[in-house]
Q: What sequence folds into this?
């Protein structure tokens, strides 16, 4: 029976085990497209899955990895032929369906997005779910009418994956970007991505006032909790904040004041079940609106055998920008 290299999570008496092993091809799940996986990445959610710190994995054994880029090897789906270059983000990959940290994946054709012409598979995974989520957030702010002339946009968790891509995208689109980080040593990095100002995250972690001084017209928040509450209370009249993450906590200790007294909008961003039309548009925009030099500057690379060792770092906020994983 043919096997391939994969990271496999098994359920154990206490928690779970994770190791790089030889996975039997007959264990692949149902799907109508077989993909040779070439590149993946490490997202916050992958860190949670591999360490078992949150119940991300819903099926065992599981090959984790929520993002892949690769080449179609075989397909009974009408849209996909062998040789097609594809990407896949979310849809339960690495959670309920065997995921990206293996040399082969069998998936549903309706989940796949064609790799944009201007992007390599490696670049697509340097963007990954984090970067595609940042793009969804920017698009949500635009749909809400936000324009550069309205005022600055704050990005929280700025030195992380979502944050780094959000800073680079907003700067390319001519927004003035205020980057909030807990890592002051990353100020030069954030300025090189296009931030005009770098603030310490401690400015956004105190007890939030219902309404504070208006500082920005919009925000992209990957932190949640007190940080998001403070961002909302400091948002200008008519502004909007896109909420993408929970790196600082799942709660939101805010009041209705920003919404009913300043007309502020809170825009929810979900990448996992995002409709296909919006995904395709987000990847098209990433192809056109993300500076490749900045993407390269925020990206480091590891191999499949390094993933388990690195996974915990992202939960501790120790990863700068994005990590790509060379699968084969
Ligand atoms: P990263 O770990 O790369 O970035 C998160 C950043 O948040 C860190 O780098 C750090 O930035 C900051 N941070 C970490 N811990 C804290 C804390 N306790 N308090 C305040 N700030 C903190 O993760 P990603 O960018 O991949 O993901 C960010 C968040 O977005 C995660 O919660 C993730 O689950 C979520 N997410 C949601 C998606 C969706 O579909 N809605 C899709 C993708 C991600 P700094 O050091 O600069 O302060």
A:
């Amino acid at each position: 029976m043919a096997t391939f290299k994969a990271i496999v999570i098994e359920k154990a008496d206490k928690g779970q085990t994770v190791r790089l092993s030889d996975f039997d091809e007959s264990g692949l799940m149902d799907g109508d497209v077989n993909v040779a996986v070439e590149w993946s990445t490490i997202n916050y959610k992958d860190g949670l899955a591999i360490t078992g710190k949150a119940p991300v994995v819903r099926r065992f054994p599981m090959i984790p990895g929520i993002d892949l880029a690769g080449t179609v090897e075989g397909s009974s789906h009408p849209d996909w032929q062998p040789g097609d270059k594809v990407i896949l983000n979310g849809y339960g990959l690495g959670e309920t369906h065997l995921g990206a940290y293996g040399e082969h994946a069998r998936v549903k054709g309706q989940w796949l997005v064609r790799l944009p012409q201007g992007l390599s598979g490696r670049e697509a995974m340097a963007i990954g779910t984090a970067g595609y989520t940042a793009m969804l957030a920017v698009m949500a702010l635009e749909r809400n009418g936000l324009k550069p002339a309205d005022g600055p946009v704050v990005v929280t968790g700025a030195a992380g994956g979502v944050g780094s891509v959000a800073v680079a995208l907003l700067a390319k689109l001519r927004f003035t970007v205020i980057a909030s980080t807990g890592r002051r040593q990353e100020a030069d990095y954030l300025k090189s991505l296009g931030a005009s100002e770098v603030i310490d995250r401690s400015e956004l972690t105190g007890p939030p006032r219902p309404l504070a001084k208006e500082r920005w017209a919009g925000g992209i928040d990957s932190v949640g909790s007190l940080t998001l509450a403070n961002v909302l209370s400091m948002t200008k009249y008519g502004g909007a904040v896109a909420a993408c993450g929970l790196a600082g906590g799942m709660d939101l200790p805010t009041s209705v004041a920003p919404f009913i007294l300043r007309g502020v909008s809170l825009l929810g961003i979900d990448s996992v079940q995002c409709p296909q039309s919006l995904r395709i548009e987000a990847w098209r925009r990433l192809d056109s609106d993300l500076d490749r030099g900045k993407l390269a500057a925020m990206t480091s690379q590891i191999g499949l055998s390094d993933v388990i060792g690195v996974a915990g770092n992202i939960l501790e906020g120790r990863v700068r920008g994005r990590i790509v994983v060379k699968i084969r």
Notes: The chain has two domains: 3-115+298-326, 129-268. Residues 121-143 form the longest helix (23 residues). The chain has a mean pLDDT of 97.
